[in-house]
């Protein structure tokens, strides 16, 4: 493969990986935007989505639906994973975050951390310690052009990711609830004065954000072929870096950040020893937080806010 | 009121069912409801118990309007009636004679508890006194362990020679990690420290040529005591390696006691008050003349120092070290100890360390649920009792009075 | 004095900010259809009063009746649903939402689309400048425009009672005049107005009833015209 097609391939991979990171980052940024808390448990919500995905997919596979009703199967798998995690997200908010809304940031953070540990170990105990394999749904077929190739699976996932992100933008900018979410994120007290029920709004945020993470989880499972109880940790860190990079609280920022982080990771792995790939990610995260905590498209007040 | 509670119960039960049954019931490809329903049952039992307790309490209210003193407070008051010498002396005596009555396994558990006591107290300086949420604290533990290991294996340095170096390196690491976070607060600080902790671990894991990577380092010598003895050549120094578990136990016990004394001293010192001032209101502290930059770095450095000592001991005792001993989970465990014991509370942290480390050993069957419990404990403590089991109320009260009246420092 | 029915009544309201006793037994009564104002020095507790009415800073003691219904224990969302609107201190515009979206949020609780559209036209007729800035983000508007937007947004819910917190703050005198003219016009359309102001002169000029607040207590209450003539008031608040 010559250099140009190699680079093209990396770009494709970067966009692919970036879209997944973007979906996860969106969950972070939405939650942070509305209650100013880093949802440490987000990584576990992502993993839970992957688990439900594999459970449903396995069941449907046994029925033979993967071959006969592919699109329907995918719809069911994703919907159920997202619905489950939406419920889980609301539960987590209710149990771990709502009681601490008026407490110090430290308390809320520790509660979030505790929730994260609880959930990941809960999944370990319920689903086992080892990898749980995803049924092979996509073959190796794909499209080739200019020396690079995209597999069918990648195309499907990227299209779905884009669809979800577009839907989110539409929801947030065109619907009453979406605007209520934005208003609540920008000025809670004023939103209440206008009659917006912020408990409800926060609950909805905790349904949508984690649901997007769940979708990403299923995508990761489909693409990489397996899910593990602790895979959320690394994805969480990277998605968090993406959210911060793009400007925490900004939805387009999360998308942009996701692409950038995906790009960095893929490019690094392509040209440099990949064992150090994760060190790079952490380093990027720290650099971003140190040099430009308000991010690229950020609200500009992140420092003051935090 | 009961009606409301019952309605809530139904909603909770529904949520729990939806969440637990798929996760627990589909471990393999077939549906095995057994575990799911059992777990669901446990949760529901807890909720029902909660309602019953509330109902009983609300009925009792008529008779007993006085707020009940938390039982910890009453125990504390009982203990405080005796002069401190007695309680401390008693505890010390128990700790001293413990190895005589315990088997090797229990002594080992004791040693581990004491190590975590040191770690918890060290982290307490950063989180408890200064209010900086450090999620990468375990990195300093690793620095101490690997410094001793490398110095001992490569240069043959003894424990005592390597220890100060380890402490210094730990403090340097503390400053390096602390520096970028000086302007950060809360959430971002936590993530950055988490990142640093992971970077340290990954570096130790990947830098094969230096650290032997995932294989770890082994064969370090145990700490040794030197004593003069008369041999064939007259007066000479003989070494006595602390190889037996009881000897190691006493060694860490002394370290732990020194740590407690050290932290206590810091707590009451000007530096300690400065830390607490920063924790309560950094801007006000800055305006009162507290050099926040230095003081914060000092907090990281001193916290790291304690961890390094613990780390060096850990590596020496085990004669083996490995990057997997320093996972993020470990930082969480230490954090859980601080949270459970009470942020800023020395006795609380000591007790919490023993409870959290010894309990899973005592209740062998619950090994698997250890981390699950830790997570649950952290969240629950924050919601129900954020000041911890043994709150540091005294120092807080002292502190508020101090801040109100103390002159510019 | 004919007392038309009271739309808002506060009786012995006490509010705490943490340990600070901000309102120490505030009582007042506002009649339907009038403009009432609350004047006083900075920190007297004027804004706290409005926040307490809305339930953002709940009262620890006392009663607030809106159209006869007690509302002191209601959450702000519920108070809004009853027909009360507020332009809080500092305008509180949603900075990253457009002028139009800000106004839309004002009508959040309403379901009658056609009527909302009518009200939107009315707001634009009151504040033509807002129409020009319709697509602009709220955070980029000037101080005066933000004030207009805040009032317009509060009107979008078709409130019966409008609480205004320092509408003149930081505005050029000409603009202040315009705002107060508009307030009169709004009142003529039937909205009762409770106005908190530092600019005592303007406030008392357009109001029917006036209240003077000092350190959490109402120390004077009378017809606004009378207060304008009152010597103490003149000395303390009218700079004469």
Please render the helix and strand layout as text.
The complex is a heterotrimer of chains A (306), B (409) and C (240).
Chain A (H helix, E strand, L loop, with lengths): L2 H33 L6 H21 L2 H4 L1 H28 L7 H23 L4 E2 L8 E4 L2 E4 H23 L1 H11 L1 H6 L4 H27 L1 E2 L4 H15 L4 H21 L5 H15 L10 H4 L1
Antiparallel strand pairs in A: 1-4, 2-3
Helix pairs in contact in A: 1-6, 1-9, 1-10, 1-11, 2-4, 2-5, 2-9, 2-10, 4-9, 6-7, 6-9, 7-9, 10-11, 10-12, 11-12
Chain B lengths: L1 H24 L7 H28 L10 H11 L2 H18 L2 H26 L8 H18 L3 H20 L7 H21 L1 H4 L5 E2 L5 E8 L2 E8 L3 H24 L1 H11 L1 H6 L4 H27 L1 E2 L6 H14 L4 H17 L7 H15 L8 H13 L4
Antiparallel strand pairs in B: 1-4, 2-3
Chain C lengths: L5 E12 L2 E12 L3 E6 L5 H9 L6 E6 L2 E2 L5 H6 L2 E4 L11 H8 L6 H14 L1 H5 L10 H13 L5 E5 L7 H16 L3 E6 L2 H7 L2 E6 L2 E7 H6 L1 H7 L3
Helix pairs in contact in C: 3-6
Quick structural overview:
The complex is a heterotrimer of chains A (306), B (409) and C (240). Chain A is mainly alpha-helical and 306 residues long.
Descriptive notes:
- The complex is a heterotrimer of chains A (306), B (409) and C (240).
- Helix content of chain A is 75%, strand content 4%.
- With 306 residues, chain A is mainly alpha-helical.
- Chain A has a single domain (3-305), classed as ABC transporter involved in vitamin B12 uptake, BtuC (Orthogonal Bundle), CATH 1.10.3470.
- The termini of chain A are far apart.
- Chain B is mainly α.
- Chain B folds into two domains: 2-60; 102-405, ABC transporter involved in vitamin B12 uptake, BtuC (Orthogonal Bundle).
- In chain B, 73% of the residues lie in helices and 5% in strands.
- Chain B has helices at residues 2-25, 33-60, 71-81, 84-101, 104-129, 138-155, 159-178, 186-206, 208-211, 245-268, 270-280, 282-287, 292-318, 328-341, 346-362, 370-384, 393-405; strands at 217-218, 224-231, 234-241, 320-321.
- Chain B has a two-stranded antiparallel sheet.
- In chain C, helix 3 runs parallel beside helix 6.
- With 240 residues, chain C is of the alpha/beta class.
- At the A-B interface, helix 2, helix 4, helix 5, helix 10 and helix 12 of A face helix 1, helix 8, helix 14 and helix 16 of B.
């Amino acid at each position: 493969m010559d250099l140009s097609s190699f680079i093209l391939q990396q770009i494709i991979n970067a966009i692919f990986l970036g879209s997944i990171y973007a979906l996860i980052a969106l969950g972070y940024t939405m939650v942070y935007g509305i209650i100013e808390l880093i949802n440490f448990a987000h990584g576990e919500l992502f993993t839970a989505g992957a688990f439900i995905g594999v459970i449903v997919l396995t069941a449907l596979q046994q029925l033979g639906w993967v071959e006969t009703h592919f699109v329907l199967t995918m719809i069911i798998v994703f919907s159920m994973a997202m619905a489950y995690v939406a419920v889980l997200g609301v539960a987590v908010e209710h149990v771990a975050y709502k009681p601490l809304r008026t407490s110090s940031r430290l308390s809320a953070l520790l509660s979030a951390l505790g929730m994260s540990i609880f959930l990941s170990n809960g999944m370990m105990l319920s689903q086992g310690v080892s990898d749980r394999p995803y049924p092979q749904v996509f073959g190796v077929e794909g499209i080739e052009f200019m020396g690079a190739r995209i597999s069918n699976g990648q195309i499907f996932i990227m299209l779905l990711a884009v669809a979800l992100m577009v839907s989110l933008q539409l929801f947030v900018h065109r619907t009453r609830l979406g605007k209520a979410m934005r208003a609540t994120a920008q000025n809670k007290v004023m939103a209440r004065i206008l009659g917006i029920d912020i408990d409800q709004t926060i609950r909805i945020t905790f349904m949508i954000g984690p649901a997007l993470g769940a979708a990403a989880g299923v995508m990761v499972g489909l693409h990489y072929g397996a899910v593990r109880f602790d895979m959320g940790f690394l994805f969480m860190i990277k998605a968090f870096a993406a959210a911060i990079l793009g400007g925490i609280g900004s939805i387009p920022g999360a998308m942009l950040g996701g692409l950038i982080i995906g790009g960095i990771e893929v490019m690094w792995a392509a040209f440099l020893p990949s064992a150090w790939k994760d060190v790079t990610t952490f380093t990027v995260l720290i650099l971003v937080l140190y040099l430009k905590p308000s991010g690229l498209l950020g609200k500009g007040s992140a420092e003051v806010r935090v | 009121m009961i009606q409301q509670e019952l309605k809530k119960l139904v909603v909770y039960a529904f949520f729990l069912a939806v969440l637990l049954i798929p996760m627990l019931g589909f471990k393999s490809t077939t549906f095995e409801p057994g575990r799911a329903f059992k777990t669901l049952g446990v949760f529901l039992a807890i909720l029902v118990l909660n309602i019953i307790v509330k109902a009983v309490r609300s009925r009792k209210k008529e008779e007993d309007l006085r707020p009940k003193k938390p039982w910890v407070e009453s125990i504390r008051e009982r203990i405080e009636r005796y002069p401190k010498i007695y309680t401390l002396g008693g505890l010390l005596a128990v700790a001293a004679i413990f190895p005589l009555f315990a088997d090797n396994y229990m002594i080992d558990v004791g040693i581990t508890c004491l190590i975590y006591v040191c770690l918890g107290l060290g982290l307490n300086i950063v989180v408890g006194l200064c209010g900086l949420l450090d999620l990468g604290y375990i990195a300093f533990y690793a620095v101490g362990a690997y410094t001793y290991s490398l110095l001992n294996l490569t240069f043959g340095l003894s424990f005592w020679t390597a220890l100060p170096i380890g402490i210094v390196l730990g403090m340097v690491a503390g400053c390096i990690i602390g520096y970028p976070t000086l302007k950060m607060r809360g959430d971002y600080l936590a993530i950055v420290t988490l990142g640093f902790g992971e970077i340290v671990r990954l570096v130790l894991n990947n830098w094969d040529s230096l650290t032997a990577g995932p294989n770890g380092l082994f064969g370090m010598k145990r700490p040794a005591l030197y004593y003069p003895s008369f041999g064939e050549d007259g007066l000479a120094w003989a070494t006595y390696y602390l190889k037996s578990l009881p000897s190691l136990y006493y060694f860490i016990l002394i370290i732990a006691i020194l740590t407690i004394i050290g932290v206590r001293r810091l707590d009451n010192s000007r530096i300690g008050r400065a830390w607490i001032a920063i924790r309560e209101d950094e801007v006000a502290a800055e305006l009162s003349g507290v050099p926040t930059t230095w003081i914060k770095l000092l907090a990281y450095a001193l916290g790291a120092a304690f961890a390094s000592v613990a780390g060096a001991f850990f590596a020496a005792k085990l004669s083996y070290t490995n990057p997997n001993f320093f996972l993020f989970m470990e930082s969480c465990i230490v954090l859980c100890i601080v949270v459970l014991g009470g942020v800023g509370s020395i006795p609380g942290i000591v007790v919490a360390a023993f409870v959290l480390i010894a309990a899973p050993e005592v209740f062998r069957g619950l090994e698997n649920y250890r981390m699950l419990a830790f997570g649950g404990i952290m969240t629950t403590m924050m919601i129900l009792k954020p000041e911890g089991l043994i709150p540091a109320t005294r120092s807080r009260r002292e502190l508020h009075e101090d801040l109100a009246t103390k002159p510019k420092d | 004095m004919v007392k038309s029915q009271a739309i808002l009544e506060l009786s012995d309201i006490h509010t705490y900010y943490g340990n600070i006793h901000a309102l120490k037994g505030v009582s007042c009564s506002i009649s339907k259809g009038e403009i009432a104002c609350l004047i006083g020095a900075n920190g007297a507790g004027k804004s706290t009063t409005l926040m307490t009415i809305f339930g953002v800073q709940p009262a620890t003691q006392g009663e607030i009746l809106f159209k006869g219904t007690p509302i002191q224990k209601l959450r702000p969302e519920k108070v809004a649903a009853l027909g009360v609107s507020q332009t809080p201190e500092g305008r509180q515009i949603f900075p990253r939402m457009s002028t139009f979206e800000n106004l839309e949020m004002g009508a959040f609780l309403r379901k009658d689309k056609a009527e909302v559209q009518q009200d939107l036209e009315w707001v634009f007729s009151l504040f033509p400048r807002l129409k020009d800035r319709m697509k602009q983000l709220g955070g980029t508007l000037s101080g005066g425009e933000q004030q207009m937007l805040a009032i317009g947004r509060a009107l979008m819910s078709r409130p019966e009672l409008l609480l205004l917190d320092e509408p003149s703050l930081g505005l050029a005198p000409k603009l202040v005049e315009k705002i107060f003219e508009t307030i009169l016009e709004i009142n003529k359309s039937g909205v009762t107005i409770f106005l908190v102001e530092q600019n005592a002169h303007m406030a008392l000029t357009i109001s029917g009833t006036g209240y003077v607040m000092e350190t959490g207590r109402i120390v004077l209450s009378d017809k606004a015209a009378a207060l304008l003539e009152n010597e103490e008031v003149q000395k303390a608040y009218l700079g004469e």
